[in-house]
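Look over both lines:
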Amino acid sequence: MINQQTIQGNWKEIQGKLKSKWGSLTDDDVMEFDGNVEQLMGRLQKKTGAGRESIEKFFDQFASNGASTVSRATEAVRGYAQQATEAVQETSQQALDSVREGYAEVEGMVRQSPAQSMAYCFGAGVLMGVVINLFFRWR
């Protein structure tokens, strides 16, 4: 059985479906809903001549359609999240592979000419010391 929150939350959509299912309903018949589901059922029975079971079945189908819509939306979000996760994992793996390749390349260059590598490191250290010294003097 459909509850008050479901009806109130989807009242505009329900109004259209009610008028579509039971063409004898007028705008005035479906405009008001004060939150009392039993009163709404009674009003619909009186206006349409439909049995309570038929009206309950209509609302149950509406509720299950809403639940399946939420379920489909949830699955779509999960799918997008899975795709995003896979893309992040692939990108991070590519970055890791690139860093490893760079490290191996530098390691190979250092092994081939260790003296030249030491000179570069010494020069870079001196240059960084000068830059840091100038930075602190400027402040």
In short: The chain has one domain: 4-138. Residues 4 and 37 are 6 Å apart (CA to CA). Residues 52-112 form the longest helix (61 residues).
